[in-house]
Amino acid sequence: MTTTVAAPAATQPVAEVKVARRWTQHGLLFVGPFLLVYLAFLVWPLLDGLRMSLSSVNIAGSNDELVGLANYAEAFGDPRMWRSLWNTIVFTALSTVPLVLLGLLLALLVHNLRFVRWLWRLSFFAPFLLPSAVVALLWRDMIYQPSFGLLNGTLGTDVLWLGDPGVAMWSVVLTTVWWTVGFNFLLYLAALQSIPQPLYEAAAIDGANAWVRLRAITLPMLRRTTGLIIVLQLLASLKVFDQIYLMTGGGPEDSTRSIIEYAYDVGFTGYRIGYASAVSYILFAIIVVISLVQLRLFRKREEGLS
Amino acid sequence: MRRGQLVLLVLAVLLAAAWLAPMAWAVATSLKPEGETTAVPSTWIGSEITLDAYALVLGTGGIVKWAINSAVTTLVVTFMTVLLSAMAAYGFARTSFRGRRVLLGLILAGIMVPPQVLIAPLFAEMVALGLVDTWWGIILPQIAAPLIVYILYKFFQEVPPELEQAAFVDGAGRWRVFFTIVLPLSRPVLGAVAIFTFITTWNNFLWPFLVSTDPNTMTLPVGLANVVQGTFGLRYAQIMASVVLAGLPLLVVFVLFQRQIIRGVAHTGLAGQ
Question: Where is the ABC transmembrane type-1 domain (chain A) (predicted)?
Answer without folding.
Answer: 85-294
